[in-house]
Specification:
About 55% of the residues lie in helices and about 0% in strands. The chain has about 280 residues and is an all-alpha fold.
Length: about 280
């Protein structure tokens, strides 16, 4: 083989390798990640969270459809940096690039939450209650859960869930909606806050709330939110921008954190700040 031909063949091979590497490193679309994953380290999101992002109540896999992109992206980042611990999600998040995490979060934010989930959640909650009568979410317990969600408990300085998660759990970006979310997942999430496996709230409010709730209260709250219809996907990639509604909410958290978790100022500041930011948006 002549030296010239060898050099031409080597150059051609180099171009093929460079093109393949460029294609491998190119960002994969959020939809493709959800459906196909990014082998070998990233399985399809749909394998656990469902083809339409509806999740699997029996396994405790949350619904992702229609959740704020900023919230989903932040959770993936938390799994990647170990501030939220889960043996399944941590290696997946670490295998994704920051761009890929943002893309898949943006994709799920645009999906419409499938109908019918509340009934399934209620059935799952009822089955769980039947298996554990001592902690069954009775009608009285659900009524109490609704009061905690909408009003809170001044005696324990427990702010209402609605302060951050919106009325009827419909969500306020960058905070997730809780309405229609699987009760099994909500209960597990509260356990994570309580144990410290989830440490993504700089104000310390969620950690404190989870520790103050009695087990029966946590179960009843999960069942009550699960019984509500999920909201439409009003959040999009725009909710990931560092200005506007998401920034205002984060500022609330940081200002409340300055008072110290559990202080009355922190509890009251959330509602006051949210009202002020609502007036600014209007």
């Amino acid at each position: 083989m002549s030296a010239g031909r060898f050099l031409r063949d080597a150059a051609t091979l180099l171009l093929v390798v460079v093109a393949a590497l460029a294609q491998a490193q190119a960002p994969v679309s959020g939809a493709a990640l959800a459906r196909e994953g990014a082998p070998p380290a990233v399985p399809p999101c749909a394998s656990c969270h469902g083809a339409a992002g509806e999740g699997v109540a029996a396994a405790g896999f949350p619904r992702l459809a229609g959740q704020p992109a900023a919230y989903l992206s932040r959770q993936l980042d938390a799994y990647a940096n170990d501030s939220r611990r889960n043996p399944v999600m941590q290696p997946i998040a670490k295998a994704l690039t920051p761009t890929q995490r943002a893309l898949v979060a943006g994709y799920y934010a645009t999906l419409v939450p499938p109908p019918g989930t509340p009934a399934a959640n209620t059935a799952a909650a009822s089955a769980s209650a039947a298996a554990a009568p001592a902690t069954a979410a009775s009608a009285a317990a659900l009524a109490s859960a609704r009061r905690l969600a909408e009003i809170g408990d001044d005696a324990r300085l427990l702010q209402a869930c609605a302060n951050c998660h919106g009325p009827q759990g419909t969500g306020e970006a960058p905070y997730p909606y809780l309405a229609g979310q699987h009760a099994s997942y909500l209960s597990a999430a509260l356990d994570e806050w309580k144990s410290g496996a989830r440490n993504t709230d700089p104000s310390g409010q969620m950690q404190r709330i989870a520790k103050l709730l009695q087990p029966a209260e946590a179960s009843a709250l999960a069942a009550w939110f699960a019984s509500l219809p999920a909201p439409p996907p009003v959040h999009s990639m725009a909710s990931m921008q560092p200005s506007g509604r998401g920034e205002a909410s984060d500022q609330c958290r940081l200002q409340c954190a300055a008072h110290g978790p559990g202080s009355r100022e922190a509890t009251l500041d959330v509602a006051e700040h949210k009202q002020r930011h609502q007036r600014e948006r209007d």
